[in-house]
Amino acid sequence: MITGSWISQVIVVIWLMNIGKISVIDPLTEEDSGNYTCIITSRGMTSSYTTTLDVLVPPVWKLMPIDLDTVSGDNVVLNCQGSGQPPPIVKWHKTTSQNSDFIPVTTQVQLNGSLVLNEISKEDEGMYRCNISNGIGTPLVKSVIIRVIGTNVDIRSFSDLSNLVIDPLTEEDTGNYTCVVNARGMTTSYTTTLTVLVPPSWSNVPHDTDALNGDPVILNCKGSGTPKPSITWSRTHGENMDFTILSSSNDLNILSNGSLHFNSISKKR
Ligand SMILES: *[C@@H]1O[C@H](CO)[C@@H](O)[C@H](O)[C@H]1NC(C)=O
Ligand SMILES: *[C@@H]1O[C@H](CO)[C@@H](O)[C@H](O)[C@H]1NC(C)=O
Ligand SMILES: *[C@@H]1O[C@H](CO)[C@@H](O)[C@H](O)[C@H]1NC(C)=O
Ligand SMILES: *[C@@H]1O[C@H](CO)[C@@H](O)[C@H](O)[C@H]1NC(C)=O
Ligand SMILES: *[C@@H]1O[C@H](CO)[C@@H](O)[C@H](O)[C@H]1NC(C)=O
């Protein structure tokens, strides 16, 4: 009779050659990974063979990121960790609004998978998605929303009253503010919209332009503000200093971004 045995740090399976039994580790777990050596002894002769068993394990959550409300200037850590075999890779993506695409975030990602946002600012606000994958099973995906309130916001609470004070007020304070009242286990809330009005300011000032007869010409004119400023173009004719308001025609076009576009400029007009 030839007897053989499989030896590893974890298990020893006795294997009887003449019965032709195949050893099965059931259930197989991650700890069963390792080197297995088969030693065969026959008539005083010993021979062995070693093989490696890698047990593949789909990722499972260790640390899941959560939604956070932060104050501008805070140092924020978003944790995202999983285990699995092979060890999973953590990837982060970010989007700033519902209709824009997720873009990869790499610079602030640590070796442990956490995303570190030092001195958080309004630009860091948005939805962050963490994706843990190792090519086995389905990736683990969790999206969280990070909100940033400015340092100009102060909440002053009294026994029967709470005030939200915003000072100084900036355009970024525009938004919906919700006041939540808890009393004897009952919760009620009220939301109000704050729109910060901002007078127009230049973002693109048109400048004097020289052009050749027949050239296409674009004159840019752009401003920002809340509500969005409207743009009108007007011109004077010859010596007459009275301005007439322009509208799109065959020769010129007022583009949706406010720029004035001539297909082909002409001295005569
Ligand atoms: C298995 O053997 C290989 C090759 O000798 C070695 O590199 C590896 O570290 C071993 N694995 C374990 C879990 O002992
Ligand atoms: C990951 O590393 C960062 C930076 O070293 C640290 O701030 C964070 O706490 C770590 N996360 C975990 C879950 O240990
Ligand atoms: C997560 O990452 C894996 C591997 O890169 C990719 O195949 C998968 O599409 C990603 N899932 C999401 C929801 O981004
Ligand atoms: C505020 O709430 C209104 C009504 O629910 C919604 O239309 C608007 O988009 C919200 N504004 C912001 C900045 O979230
Ligand atoms: C406005 O749009 C035109 C055509 O798309 C472009 O050439 C021009 O640079 C734009 N102006 C500004 C200020 O973005």
List the helices and strands and how they pair.
Elements: E1 3-7, E2 12-16, E3 34-42, E4 45-53, E5 57-63, E6 68-71, E7 76-78, E8 81-85, E9 89-95, E10 103-105, E11 115-117, E12 126-133, E13 140-149, E14 153-157, E15 162-166, E16 175-183, E17 186-194, E18 198-204, E19 217-219, E20 222-226, E21 234-237, E22 240-245, E23 252-254, E24 260-262
Parallel strand pairs: 6-13
Antiparallel strand pairs: 1-2, 1-3, 3-4, 5-8, 7-11, 9-10, 9-12, 12-13, 14-15, 16-17, 18-20, 19-24, 21-22, 23-24
Bound molecules: 2-acetamido-2-deoxy-beta-D-glucopyranose (5 copies).
Q: Which labels suit this protein?
A:
269 residues; five-stranded mixed β-sheet; four-stranded antiparallel β-sheet; elongated; binds 2-acetamido-2-deoxy-beta-D-glucopyranose; Ig-like_fold
What would a concise description of this structure say?
The chain is built from no helices and 24 strands. The protein is mainly β and 269 residues long. The strands form nine sheets. The chain has a five-stranded mixed sheet, with no helix packed on it. It has a four-stranded antiparallel sheet with strand order 2-1-3-4, with no helix packed on it.
